[in-house]
Amino acid sequence: MDQMEKRITSTLEEYVEIKVLEEVVETLKELPESSAHECLPFVNFKAVEMCCDAPKHQESLVKLLGALFEQKTLWSNHLEAGMQRFLECLEDVSIDVPSAPKVVCGFLIHGIKDKYFTWNFIKKMTDKYIEDKPKFAGTLLNALFQELGPADAPKTWRESGISLVDLGVKDESAFCKENKLNRLFPSEQIGELMEELLEKGASDADMIAQIEKTAGELECTVDRDMARVLMRCVLKRIVAELGGAEELHKSDGESLTEPHEKLAFEKRTKLLKQWLGKECDQAYALFEVQKCAQQLDYPKGFLTRMLFTLYDLEVIEETAVRDWLSPPDNRHLFLKQAKDTFAIKNNVEAKKQVCILRVLLTLCWCVVFD
After folding, report:
1. What is the pLDDT of residue 329?
2. Dihedral sign for Cα atoms in the order 176, 177, 182, 187
3. Which of 4, 21, 18 is closest to 45 using CA atoms?
């Protein structure tokens, strides 16, 4: 095995000098078939190791791995095993080579681009081997943006099937600011604009125009993640107008709607409806209502009232509430996380309010407003 690994090392060292793909392919095909499955992962391991020592070779070596995969000289399992082997020692390597995580992330993103790595593989490896997950996530996503650019990077991330929470991020907004990822996550930048406009008391029409203008400048669309941020910003402002957590906790929680709360939402109905036309987008937005209730430590009846008020104003539909309460498997990860929040908090008031919603939905809740 040592001799074969030495041969692979020699071949890669020669490749970065002469860039002849056929030489590498021939060497790998000459490996004994009985031990090839053990030796082939070493190609990826050694490529990453070489780039930690000499970053100038990274461009040529990531292209080499992509070409070997395309030619079926290496398969996904070989490349994954090689990366896993390196990740096992990444924390130790990083002590002497602080740039090692950046090198690894570059290889991971090229693996995503060339389709021999998956985001689930990256999540699994991050969970298993990375201590400072948010820091690693920042390096990874900066590599994603640098490699794919503003046109393709956001789309690739949206289609990844994982969320920032999966990569250990707790505060999305702070994470984006710290890692300068606003162009990858334009919803956070637009969220800052929303908060500023709400603070100034801008009309719904002016806010819609400003948001669409900013989205155009950022070369992005107002998608469901931005709809979620919109709900967060509007709800944050309304809570402040209602007197904050202290006032909300004074409620006995007996009513399904409160006139002053409904009036506060009515002022922003046009704005909310602008980007909450689809039921799935509405379900995403309800996650922010849930997060707000959790942050306020679940004032009595608050969550139930917010949902019924939004429903009464025709901002959300019954199906969206059902999807939020019991997210289908094919829906976004935010909904799955929302599903778990009450159990994680183990909050009696939260469970009570969800039980009320479930009972009313079972009884066909629209009857309540007849």
Report:
1. 56
2. positive
3. 4
- Tokens representing residue 267 in the block: 């002022």
CA dihedral 349, 351, 352, 353 (to 10 degrees): 90
If you search the block for the tokens 């999807």, which residue do you land on?
A: 323
Measure Cα distances from 154 to 142, 187, 205, 362 in Å.
11, 11, 27, 39
Q: What percentage of the chain exceeds 70 in pLDDT? A: 87
Q: In angstroms, how far is the first alpha carbon of the chain from the final one?
A: 77
User: Average pLDDT, stretch 342-351?
Assistant: 58
The answer, yes or no, to whether residue 349 has pLDDT greater than 60, is yes
Sequence-distant (≥ 6) Cβ neighbours of residue 356 within 8 angstroms: 304
In the prediction, which pLDDT does 328 show?
A: 61
Output the six-digit token pair for 57: 């070779």
Out of 193-202, 209-218, 330-339, 359-368, which region has the weakest mean confidence (pLDDT)? Answer: 330-339
Find the length of the chain.
Answer: 370
Examine the pLDDT at 93 and tell me if it is beyond 90: yes
Q: Quote the CA–CA distance of 365 and 221 in Å, as a whole number.
A: 34
